[in-house]
Amino acid sequence: MLSEQLTAWAAVAAVVISLVNVGLSARLVRRQESTQWIRGHLPELIAGFNDATHRFMVKVHRGDWDGVAPEARSSHGMDEAREALAYLSKLQVFAGPATILAAHKTFDAVDAIRMHHLSVLEAGGRVDQDWSRYWSYAQANHAFMTASRREMGLKPPPALRPEVLPSHQASRWTAIRSWFRRHTPADS
What is the pLDDT of residue 32? Predict the structure, then answer.
């Protein structure tokens, strides 16, 4: 009788241990699949956000503001901004805090360029390419790429080089001529 009870308790204990083992294994597998799914989507979201913010920056920094009607200026570049914000909202679900913060700063840097140009035009001025604001965008974008690459376990991107930017006072052609002179061998 005692041996039958002992056998019954041993069988119950084996069933309980086996159910706990199956439950833990299923949970770990689900967590691993979820992590793989997130890691599979993260590069696509990062690349999409980076591309959308770059197109937003090109539209507002290099775009022809003189060709935009005064009543349409406030919406200039907003299609690109909406796309970048859509990617940003998806990043907030899948990315870590450092990547999300860097993404916000990147978007804010581009929007600062847009808002600066709008205020210059509103005051009756002419929009010139402001390289200091572009450099702020470049730094924010570099920080975003560094944070996102770190999150994916990749090496950081190469360091930024400010010498590739034209100076604030030089026109684009002056900067190109200056670069050409530095990189072309002198006639001997």
Answer: 62
